[in-house]
Amino acid sequence: xxxxxxxxxxxxxxxxxxxxxxERGYDVTGFGRKAQxxxxxxxxxxxxxxxxxxxxxxxxxxVVDAFGTxxxxxxxxxxxxxxxxxxxxxxxxxxxxxxxxxGSLYDDPEHKTQLVDTPDFPAEFYALAKAQTDALTxxxxxxxxxxxxISPAADFQVDGKRTGKYILAGExxxxxxxxxxxxxxxxxxxxxxxxxxxxxHIKERISVVGK
Length: 211
Description:
Elements: E1 3-7, H1 12-23, E2 27-32, E3 43-46, H2 54-57, E4 62-65, H3 77-89, E5 95-99, H4 126-139, E6 146-151, E7 155-157, E8 167-169, E9 182-184, H5 185-198, E10 204-209
Parallel strand pairs: 1-2, 1-4, 2-3, 4-5, 5-6, 6-10, 7-9
Antiparallel strand pairs: 8-10
Helix pairs in contact: 1-5, 3-4
Domain NAD(P)-binding: 9-195
Protein name: Hopanoid-associated sugar epimerase, hpnA
InterPro entries: NAD(P)-bd_dom, NAD(P)-bd_dom_sf, Polyketide_Oxido-like
C-alpha cells in the first residue's frame, strides 16, 4: 500500500486530496499545525511544516504540498516551503506533488508571457500569483527531486461540484469547450490523486481544467 503524506492536510484542497486518496485505499498521513484532525486521514501528526525533518518524511513514497497562504506578509512562504521540502527530499525516491497556482501558466505557445504578466490580470490577485510563480521557478532548479507542480484553472472554485471529469493540460492556459478556464477544488483533488496513482509527469508542471 502506497504511503502518502499530505502537508497542510486540514486545508480546503489538502483535505479533499486526503479524501480522494483514502477512498482509493492509500495509507495517508496528514500533517498540520492544528491539534485537531479535520480530515479522513488514517494518521495525523501535528507539526509545522518548517519543523519537518528528513526522518519525518522518510517512510513516504509520495508527499503532497497543499500549503497555501493569502496574507501579503506571508506570501514569501510559498518559495520558502519549496526550498524546505526540496532540501528534505533531495536525492530520495519520494515524489513531491505541489498544489500550484494558475498565474504561472503561459499565455502564448512560445512560452514567453505568463498569465500573471498579461495586461488584464486582476490586480487584486497579482501578489499571490507572483508568489506562486516564484515558487515554480524555485522548484525547477531542483533536478534531484521527483516533483510535479499542478496548476489549477484560472477560476479555481472552492465550493464547486465534483463532476469527476477534467482536462489534463500542460504549461499553457487551456480552455474547455465552453471557452472557460475553470475547475472546482474537488475535481482538482481528483486530478491530483490520479497523478499520484499514475506518476506520468515527473519533473513537470501540468495543469487541469474542468470539462
